[in-house]
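ugh ok so i messed up the first submission bc i forgot one of the chains. this is the corrected input, ALL of the components this time, i swear. 580 residues overall. if the numbers dont match what u have on ur side tell me asap before i send this to the collaborators (the ones from the other lab, u know who)
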Amino acid sequence: MKQKIGFIGLGSLGTPIALNLLESGYPLVVYNRTLSKTAPLKEKGAEVSQSVAALAAQCEVVLSIVSDDKALRLICEGEGGLLSHLPKGSLHISLSTILPRTAEDLAASHGEKKLQYLAAPVFGRPEAAVVRKLNYVISGEGSARTRATPILKDSGGMNVFDYGDMITAANTVKLCGNFLIASALEAIGESIQLARKSGIDPHQMWGMFTQTLFNNPVYAGYSQIILKEQFEPAAFSMKLGLKDINLVLQQATSADQNMPLASLIHQKMDQLVRDGKENIDWAAFSLEGS
Amino acid sequence: MKQKIGFIGLGSLGTPIALNLLESGYPLVVYNRTLSKTAPLKEKGAEVSQSVAALAAQCEVVLSIVSDDKALRLICEGEGGLLSHLPKGSLHISLSTILPRTAEDLAASHGEKKLQYLAAPVFGRPEAAVVRKLNYVISGEGSARTRATPILKDSGGMNVFDYGDMITAANTVKLCGNFLIASALEAIGESIQLARKSGIDPHQMWGMFTQTLFNNPVYAGYSQIILKEQFEPAAFSMKLGLKDINLVLQQATSADQNMPLASLIHQKMDQLVRDGKENIDWAAFSLEGS
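and heres the new structure output, hopefully the right one now
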């Protein structure tokens, strides 16, 4: 029998990851702020917990994937949070995309309570989770990395990339990755508009590019979404995209770096969110303002 | 015996393409403004012509690949140019990266002289030409496309993508492609700087990205160049990069489109050329200004 695992955060990516763990044979206790989202897990045999505290009290390993730094701090440091309720020696594997500095703070506050905090952000859309092709990036204490690796593989991780001891490393890499994807979106969008306004069929052009210069899944998938302007339902929302690009710019500021392309992307996304487009797919920003 | 072909422009890409034609069994007459560059072709059996006019007089098919719109107009419309000297019915296959509007003008002026002009810009670095992995994009009259396709394949074209009758199509697609590569460079450069300034090893990060999210030759090749700052000798110079991005912006203007990312790239490249860096690899712009 595998060890019991606690799982917090059943969003579009959290749900298939939690289902993978169940399928891999881990007894699972799940918690989600909106209770209705626990139904698919309950159906497959997970125990549903009514509070983080109740979940924490019975798990030595907890995975969490929540929407932002604030939500993560709340489930850790809030009243009834993990820090007050996890048994000593427990491991918190944190999958959320957050500021590296937040990971550093949380590693420290976990340490004070004799708990381990591992930064383990994840690359992959929900569809990739279902077919177990996620890429995890981890950093933190050596023993936490060793402990977490087989669990992350069982949760759908095709790869677990180890960035060593420095707790901030994994979240920095994740922010770089999301920035690179957003940059590809902007480039795809501008190229589609230029082709279209020049009287060229952008579908034919992108059929060619994804077969030659840009034959990889990011370009193949997103060029189709942008060509067809299929922005609803969102696979990844503008609101979450803006959150991530905000984190990129915050990290750039603390590293004393100019990122003109990140700033450009931020400006376009921010405008769309102000215009009430927060729930459409983030790829839509690439067609704005042209 | 295959038909005799004229070849104008023995730069870093023109030379391996011309060598492929020779190797494929075409008798070749070559012309280059700087005579010394004809030596490798002469050595392999090509006839060297002292003028465009002398070359044109003996060929029914001419390929040209020159540095810019002005150079191309000169070899076509100048005194002693192709328009005055090619036999009626000849085909000019034009590989240069130029403004779509220039292709339109040249197709018209060739037509007036009962000559065919085919737009056939090419994707691929010199190394790709050597191993016959170029990608051609063609547009123009149907009979010109039919006539040129086997020759382009024999010149190292792994693929010849046919964009139909509209003469401007191929050069528009080529500009979109170069814009997309330049955009990838900017994104790679900003991500490397962010990782480095955040204390992360950017080599490890890019080893991961080129194995996962960005597993394709553009990202694999250029991330290495930017990581190592190997900008000399240039595989593709800043001067040529700036020329291409200028064409992208000119095309955007005539298509009444804003391209904020193209403008950002232009600004950075332009500054470097003003600073005398015109001969280093164009990838260097991505690290500037951060």
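quick check: The first helix of chain A runs from residue 14 to 23. that seems consistent at least. Chain A has a mean pLDDT of 97.
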